[in-house]
Amino acid sequence: MGQWSRTGDTPPFIELVPPERATGTRKELYDELERVRGPGRVSNLFKAYSAFPELGQANFRRLMVLLTRGSLSVKFKEAVMTALAEANKCDYCVSFHATAMRSAGASDDEVRAALEFDPDRLGFSRKEKLLFNFALKANGDPHSISPDDIFPLREAGVNDQEIVETLETVNTGNSFNMINGALNIGPDDFLTYMKDRGETWKAAS
Amino acid sequence: MALLADIRTQDELDVFLDAPELTILDVYTQDCVICRKIEPMIAAVVQTSRGVQARKLDAAALPRFAERYEVRGVPTLLLFRNGRAIDRKSGFFTATELREWVRAKRGA
């Protein structure tokens, strides 16, 4: 089934090969996902990426570098990706990243704050608040970013790596939202949290 | 998927803008990518701020309005209270910036 927010029961637009049928490089990708995330946690997004398994492997490695290296917290990066998923109206992505936010120590209220684009309620440092808004601005209109947007970051002690780390978080969130949306890729069976966003959007529209 | 309801007629617009609360009118066009990016920001501000309402207007739907208010680019956000335009902004703004804008204008 596709994304919760879509009407009807349209299946994804490409085949999502289940782990029990995976072979070769696709199986290597699935094995790596299960090794890192746990048994049964091959996400539908990476099942889609496995149509081009080498690219899937490269993307997963990139994601792992983003989440495990650098100096910004996983909670910060998952909050940015939760906010982007909300902005991009990817309900699968909201559920996935909200779940990851909770795993990184965020409360339900903080998840709600990310969905409302409000860094003041996320338990963030001043630097993280500024970077959260910088991420939203880069997503909204990257070409409008000016020295006036960079100056407060510098004053708060943000370095070049943290700026790149934040922008790559935006890039990653957007690219995953886009692939899930364009291919009508629906939620993973292992997700249980924040499954109601699609219904909320439908009710509001 | 629309987050802000569209204004479709002049009568609807007149009633909406005459409201005593702070009223954001988001003037957009169908092909404007940044307009789609700012809409969830505005919706979140309305959801989390008391006494603020917002709707959107396709600039092509009521061209005389866009002309009267000199809307030269989109998105343009016009802030009204009691039928009077009290401020405006153009371009993308984060929800934090919009909350500060609304807060600053609330007492004005």
Q: What this model shows, in words?
A:
The complex is a heterodimer of chains A (205) and B (108). Chain A has helices at 24-37, 44-49, 53-68, 74-87, 91-103, 108-115, 126-140, 147-155, 160-182, 197-204. Chain A has 205 residues and is mostly helical. Chain A starts with 23 loop residues before the first helix and ends with a helix. The mean pLDDT of chain A is 95. Chain B is an alpha+beta fold and 108 residues long. A four-stranded mixed beta sheet of chain B has the order 2-1-3-4, covered by helices on one side. In chain B, helix 2 (33-48) packs across helix 4. The N and C termini of chain B lie far apart (34 Å). Classes of the chains: A mainly alpha (205), B alpha+beta (108). The A-B interface holds A 5, 86-87, 89, 115-120, 133, 136-137, 139-141, 144, 201-202, 204-205 and B 1-3, 34, 37-38, 40-41, 43-44, 47-48, 91-97, 99.
Order of helices and strands of chain A: HHHHHHHHHH
Low-confidence residue ranges of chain A: none
**Strand tally of chain A:** 0
Structural class of chain B: alpha+beta
Strand order in space, largest sheet of chain B:
2-1-3-4
Summarize the largest interface: chains and residue counts: A-B, 21 and 20 residues
Strand content of chain A: under 5%
Q: How many β-strand stretches of chain B?
A: 4
Characterize the main sheet of chain B.
4 strands, mixed
